[in-house]
Amino acid sequence: MMEIYLGTIALEPNRWFGVTQDRWGTIVLRDWLDPIRDAGFDGIELWESHLRDASDADADAIIGHPLPIRVFNTYVGFDDDNDDRTHAAEWIRRTGADKVKWNTGPDRNDAALAAYGERLAHWAGQLPGVRLACECHDGSAMDDPEAAARVLAAGGPPARSQAIVHSNDGHDRLRAKFAAYGERITHVHVNNLDRGSPPLAELRDELRSTISLLDSLGFDGTWTIEFVHGTGTESDRPDLLLAQAAADLDVLRELLDRPHC
To answer: Which element (helix H / strand E) includes 185?
Structure first.
């Protein structure tokens, strides 16, 4: 059975305030870990601010909770050489997460792509045993499958230098990504922000088709419910968002557990 995680950023109303490192967490995540576990999630994709901005006691409670931290979600920069990635590596090692979500900046000239690959390889050296999964986000240099393939190859072997795809990527785009670096794709983000994040129950047929395509392309990795219905609305409250995430989990689990051929 494929594992499904909840992205803790989904519960955070302050998720998009400011830019990059200026964001900060406002919810006390430790208070939500039992409800996330009880909803049936296999673990969490931890937004770095929920740990970095927590008190020492809360951080210890998050790291020590029985619900595992499977993915560490960082917005650390790759556009220059600084200590931010080293500090992030310290947090990642402390959590025990075996996968990290990261992104590059927008520069996509040859020199920038080469530098991204070098920085990724160096970061991998600071994180032995951890898989570094590029989100390859729209607007970053890595939204180009060929550019992403180049950086990922420079970053290390497929067992270490990996990638994420999104449930709303579209079939043609998914095929292009798998053609360019398919063996490195090990995780899916369930994200339908581009259409207002309807409940997954309303996207059942479309999601079933996407899962079938991923199966045909050889995907057998893990999933994160990244955003849910209610995001950016009057219902953008952790309790309501978690209730929706639990409903989405049931739909996704049902579809993943059925044959898709």
So the answer is: strand 185-190
